[in-house]
Amino acid sequence: MRTFYTALAVLAIALGVQGAAMADDITADVLTYDGNTKVVTAKGDVVIHANQGATITGSNGEYHFEDRSAFLEGGVHYVKDQTTLYADKMYLYQDKTARGIGSVNFHDELEKRTLKGDDVMYNPDTGFGKIEGNGYLESPDGILQAPHIEGNMKQVKVVATGGVNLSSSLHNAVGYGDQAVYTRTGANGTDGKLVLTGNAWVNQNGNSFNGPELVLRDEDKVVETTGRSTIVITNTGSTGSDSGSSSSGGGSTAPQGPVTAATPIAGRPEEAGSPLEIKDSK
Question: Which residue range is the domain that position 249 belongs to?
């Protein structure tokens, strides 16, 4: 039997008349509204049709009318336009950042981008994304796998740390490094640059490169090395084999355009640096 409190219905009507942003509707087996905190607590088969077209389902959760945020747990499924998220728990923040915790799979079909990990944050509006634990980021540029991945997909700057495995169809390459930094001046920029540092290794077109730092550029589709490096050429017909032996001083450490490795990651919300939230089961 579903229980709906009169206070909740009255509040919904009042907010609708005032034109305030709010959830379109919340359905569950049991709903409780706290007039002091303006928080609705839901138990059992929760369905939230949130503002701006998002639909979230889970076993239990709550919705905050004050800041338009929400929390759900138990087989959470989030859908908004062409964006979907599956997770054990989910937080929806005021700035529209969605955060999944536990077996997270976040897919943005419009951008052809997938984020997976133990703790994943993503905001389709700003382009900011962060993955902690078993990180996996797939985009048209390739695949990055690392314990920690953070970046802005519109700026573009992505930093992966903790031991990074990469696969790039764009460069016909696979590789590894302690850290990877990919920068580009916007989603449609042509000056993309991937820098692998620390025990870096790349195999491109059958040729092997390893050294303290390896650089791959989108335009040239070649590998540059800095420091003491080793190159093993097994495919002399591949493009960019000779260019891989160049150690080009400053050119290999400073990306073209205004985006550099030192540029702060744009769109980073306050919640990105906060510890994992813990919610007691309601």
Answer: 140-265
